[in-house]
Write a structure and sequence with these properties.
The chain is an alpha+beta fold and 296 residues long. It folds into 3 domains: 67 residues, Uridine Diphospho-n-acetylenolpyruvylglucosamine Reductase, domain 2, CATH 3.30.43; 127 residues, Uridine Diphospho-n-acetylenolpyruvylglucosamine Reductase, domain 3, CATH 3.30.465; 79 residues, Alpha-Beta Complex (Uridine Diphospho-n-acetylenolpyruvylglucosamine Reductase, domain 1), CATH 3.90.78.10. The strands form 4 sheets. The chain has a 5-stranded antiparallel beta sheet with strand order 6-7-10-8-9. Strands 1-2-5-3 form a 4-stranded mixed beta sheet. Strands 11-14-13-12 form a 4-stranded antiparallel beta sheet. Strand 8 and strand 9 form a beta hairpin. The protein is globular. The two termini are 34 Å apart. Helices cover 25% and strands 24% of the residues. The chain binds flavin-adenine dinucleotide. Flavin-adenine dinucleotide binds next to strand 3, helix 3, strand 10 and strand 11.
Length: 296
């Protein structure tokens, strides 16, 4: 099947694009580098009636072992931009970021130039578009604008008042974030640097950062961390296939070898069952399954 642009590859292994290192092939895998290319690919997919999904840094994503039918969009280099669009004399900094900008690049620039309150994002893997889509670390509080390209190729600009961020959700209509405008208070660079340094130190000492994972498997239910509920049942180290509950952080599932998506899903179902049985709490997945709906 020929595409009007050479940014589309066939049968691209998704395991190469997820931090879990799990996932079969994407039937069509597009890495558009410009807005025009992105829109062209989406229009073509629509005319062929292909289902479309999007993966960013792949650090919160579980991809099916058998792969994904249709088109997977993975924004290319042209979306790794960052531009200062601050108004002069404003106490706030405004930046326009491409959705494929590494979140850690943003944090690096914050430490360098004195952009405040970004310590919550220190060490957060993945891309800015994925973080906004997930409202990771409540990044939504900085978001002023979201530029969205719907799956039919039409564009929409969403202003702050039109956005409704909540815990690990941006409630956006289906589509691809191409750019966002973020705003932070200006602070002294030494202060920003020191806060970020401390936050990184804490993250590295408390989270699972050595083995492949996709961060927390479950959302925290009201009032109690999911990790505590899992830990209280002595489930650290529990394993199905090569998917294991991290010894370090009970809400992380790690890939200790050649884990499959099915291994991870089975382990998640087991944990959900044990927690529901012990405390009546229904743990909801935080990981996003792309290409199909959660059935667990
Ligand atoms: C070691 C580790 C630690 C982590 N710690 C944290 C943490 O402390 N706090 C936290 O909140 N998360 C954490 N995470 C999860 C993850 O890093 C964040 O959610 C991250 O912001 C996701 O970004 P991503 O680009 O990797 O998204 P992806 O995994 O690629 O995508 C996540 C979701 O967003 C969608 N998406 C991605 N890009 C776009 C786009 N451009 N437009 C529209 N939708 C899009 C995807 O379809 C998917 O549904 C951690 C993960 C790891 C591996």
């Amino acid at each position: 099947m020929l595409w009007p642009t050479n940014c589309v590859r066939q049968r691209e292994p998704l395991a190469d694009h997820t931090s879990f290192r799990i996932g079969g092939p994407a039937e069509h895998f597009a890495e558009p580098s410009t807005l025009e290319e992105l829109i062209g690919v989406l229009r073509e997919a629509r005319s062929r009636r292909l289902p479309v999904c999007v993966v960013g840094g792949g650090t919160n994503t579980l991809a099916p072992d058998r792969g994904i039918c249709g088109l997977v969009v993975h924004l290319g280099r042209g979306f790794r931009t960052i531009q200062d669009v601050s108004e002069s004399d404003s106490p706030m900094v405004r930046v326009r970021c491409g959705a494929a900008l590494l979140t850690q690049r943003l944090v690096y620039l914050a430490a360098k130039h004195g952009w405040g309150e970004l310590e919550a994002l220190a060490g957060l893997p993945g891309w800015v578009g994925g973080a906004v889509s997930m409202n990771a670390q409540e990044i939504g509080r900085f978001v002023q604008e979201v530029h969205l390209v719907r799956f039919d190729g039409t564009q929409r600009l969403l202003m702050r008042e039109q956005l409704a961020f909540s815990y690990r959700d941006a409630a956006l209509e289906p589509g691809i974030i191409s750019h966002v405008v973020l705003q932070f208070p200006k602070v002294a660079p030494e202060e920003a640097y020191e806060r970020i340094r401390r936050a990184l130190q804490y993250r590295n000492s408390s989270q699972e950062v050595r083995l492949p994972s996709a961060g927390c498997a479950f959302k925290n239910p009201p009032g109690v961390p999911a990790g505590r509920l899992i830990d209280q049942l002595g489930l650290k180290g529990a394993r199905i296939g090569d998917a294991q509950i991290s010894q370090r952080h009970a809400n992380f599932i790690v890939n200790v070898g050649h884990a499959t998506c099915d291994d991870v899903l089975s382990l998640m179902e087991y944990v959900q069952h044990r927690v529901r049985e012990a405390s009546g709490v229904c743990l909801e997945p935080e990981l996003r399954m792309i290409g199909q709906r959660w059935t667990a």
